[in-house]
Write a structure and sequence with these properties.
The protein is of the alpha/beta class. It folds into 2 domains: about 10-145, Rossmann fold, CATH 3.40.50.2300; about 150-210, Winged helix-like DNA-binding domain superfamily/Winged helix DNA-binding domain (Arc Repressor Mutant, subunit A, Orthogonal Bundle), CATH 1.10.10. Helix content is about 50%, strand content about 10%. It contains 10 helices and 6 strands, in the order E-H-E-H-E-H-E-H-E-H-E-H-H-H-H-H. Strands 2-1-3-4-5-6 form a 6-stranded parallel beta sheet, sandwiched between helices. Strand 4, helix 4 and strand 5 (about 105-110) form a beta-alpha-beta unit.
Length: about 220
C-alpha cells in the first residue's frame, strides 16, 4: 500500500477508456483523494473542470472528439492557473514538450508505476511541476536539439492536424473534431506537407510512427 496521501484532494479524470479511468480512480481513492467527475474527451473535461473546480485535472493526451491537447489549450485560456497532469501511452518527446508549453503542470507516461502516478498527482495538485523521470532526459535533449526533430517545425495547430491525419482521419473528420472549416484544415495540410517534405497521408503516418507518436 502506498504511503502517499491525497486526503482532501479533489480530481477530475479524463480518459476515453472507462476501465483506465476506473483504475486511476481506485488508485486515487485508495490514497484518500476524491474523484469529483470523469470525462471521456477534451470538451467534457473542460466542462467538468468548469463545474467542479478541482485541485487538479488528470487527462489523457489522446482522446476522440476533442484531444487532451486541445482540451488543455482551451482550459488554460479560461483558467490559466489550472493544475493539469497529462498522461500518454507514448513515450515520445514532441507531445510532452507541447503539453508543458501549453500550460500542463505535469506529464507522465501511462507505463509508470502506480506509486509514480500518485506522486505525480500529489505534486500537480499542489501546484508543483512534475515530469516523468523516464522522459526527463529526452525532453531536455528535445529542448536543446529542437531543429533535429522535423515535427518541431510545426505550429501547435499544425501538429494537432498532423497527428489526426496521421491516424487516418479525413480532412472533413479533422475539421469537425477541431471545429474549423475543411478549407482551413486543407491549408494546414499544405503547410505540413511542405515542412515535412511529405507528399501524401501515408508518408505522414510513416513520420508519426518513426517519431513514436502512433503504433503500427
Amino acid at each position: 500500500m502506498s504511503s502517499i496521501s491525497l486526503a482532501d484532494t479533489r480530481f477530475v479524470l479524463a480518459d476515453d477508456h472507462a476501465v483506465v479511468r476506473m483504475g486511476f480512480r481506485l488508485l486515487l481513492e485508495g490514497a484518500g483523494a476524491t474523484v469529483v467527475a470523469e470525462a471521456d474527451n477534451g470538451q467534457a473535461a473542460f466542462a467538468a473542470y468548469d463545474e467542479h473546480a478541482p485541485d487538479a485535472l488528470i487527462m489523457d493526451v489522446s482522446m476522440p472528439g476533442g484531444s487532451g491537447l486541445e482540451g488543455l489549450e482551451r482550459l488554460m485560456s479560461h483558467h490559466p492557473n489550472a493544475r493539469v497532469l497529462m498522461l500518454s501511452a507514448h513515450e515520445d518527446s514532441q507531445i510532452p514538450v507541447r503539453a508543458l508549453k501549453a500550460g500542463a503542470t505535469g506529464y507522465l507516461s501511462k507505463s509508470a508505476h502506480p506509486d509514480e502516478f500518485l506522486r505525480a498527482a500529489q505534486s500537480v495538485s499542489r501546484g508543483k511541476k512534475y515530469v516523468d523521470p523516464k522522459l526527463a532526459a529526452n525532453l531536455a535533449l528535445a529542448q536543446l536539439n529542437g531543429d533535429a526533430d522535423p515535427l518541431s517545425k510545426l505550429t501547435d495547430k499544425e501538429f494537432t492536424v498532423f497527428l489526426q491525419l496521421a491516424q487516418g482521419k479525413s480532412v472533413n473528420e479533422v475539421a469537425e473534431a477541431i471545429h474549423v472549416a475543411p478549407s482551413t484544415v486543407g491549408t494546414h495540410l499544405y503547410h505540413i506537407k511542405q515542412k515535412l517534405s511529405a507528399s501524401n497521408a501515408a508518408e505522414l503516418t510513416l513520420i508519426a510512427v518513426r517519431c513514436g507518436l502512433i503504433e503500427t
